[in-house]
Design brief:
The protein is α/β, with parallel strands linked by helices. Helix content is 20%, strand content 31%. The protein contains five helices and eleven strands; from the N terminus they run βαββαββββαβββαβα. A hairpin with a 4-residue loop joins β5 and β6.
């Protein structure tokens, strides 16, 4: 039986997510994949995961505690009085994921348990080379060779962080591009606040114009991918083949 739930960024590890579901619903679950990442105002992130029910029983009103009053299965969200309407899109995507052929969706993606002290955005900027039709990705040569990585602004939207960093790489004349989605998420639940409360999001950013037409600032360079890897990257550009990253307005959360 499929289940969709949302967890805060510090609960995104599998064990913590399973514990949260158990405390609030009374159900034991196994987490299957990250389904969506949403963010607003820089430091607010919501990681949506799916899972399968493996045991337990729905919490009843008699079992109400500080975690929740009760839990129930709902067919129509319109039958409920919700604090906000922002979960409608999450439930809709979860239903689509559950009811369609999994071959039409991205492979299961779970967060990697790796500590981080800051909120970082890592970019996999991909472009096609016109000369041989091969895919290339941008790397930074500032210290050691690595994918371009920058700190996420805690007070501005992720769009602001992305545009600011892309401008540092390409200058004022940005090539046409659009963030496609999340390739990986790295974090580790902190036992004490402040120990390692950050995370790293790796986001695929395809560029729509050929490599030969793009100017980059020094200390960055293009690396041509092996053919098989480049083809795999192209598959991520198709519908539902990557975890979406949605930047939402704060007003949506409190409406």
């Amino acid at each position: 039986m499929p289940l969709c739930c949302e967890v805060s960024c510090l609960l995104c590890e599998q064990d913590a997510a399973k514990r949260e579901v158990l405390e609030e619903t009374g159900l034991e679950v196994s987490i299957t994949t990250l389904l969506m990442v949403e963010c607003a105002s820089g430091s607010w992130f919501r990681f949506v995961v799916t899972g399968n029910v493996t045991g337990g029983s729905l919490k009843t009103p008699a079992q109400a505690d500080s975690e929740s009053l009760q839990a129930m299965w709902v067919t129509n969200l319109e039958d409920l009085s919700l604090r906000g309407n922002d979960i409608h899109s999450l439930v809709q995507r979860a239903r689509q994921h559950s009811s369609t052929d999994r071959a039409l969706w991205h492979s299961p993606l779970l967060p990697v348990s790796r500590p981080a002290t800051k909120m970082l955005l890592r970019l996999l900027i991909a472009v096609r080379k016109k000369a041989n039709n091969r895919m290339c990705v941008l790397v930074s040569d500032k210290t050691s060779t690595h994918l371009p990585t920058t700190e996420i602004s805690p007070v501005r939207s992720l769009h602001y962080t992305l545009k600011k960093y892309m401008t540092e790489i390409f200058g004022a004349e940005l090539p046409p591009h659009r963030p496609q989605g999340v390739l990986s998420c790295e974090l580790l639940t902190s036992p004490q606040p402040g120990t390692h409360d950050g995370f790293v999001l790796t986001v695929l950013v395809p560029v729509r114009t050929p490599l030969e037409t793009i100017t980059i600032i020094d200390k960055y360079s293009w690396v041509e991918l092996p053919k098989a890897l480049g083809e795999d990257l192209l598959l991520r550009l198709e519908k539902n083949m990557i975890v979406p990253l949605n930047v939402i307005r704060v007003s949506v959360l409190i409406s």
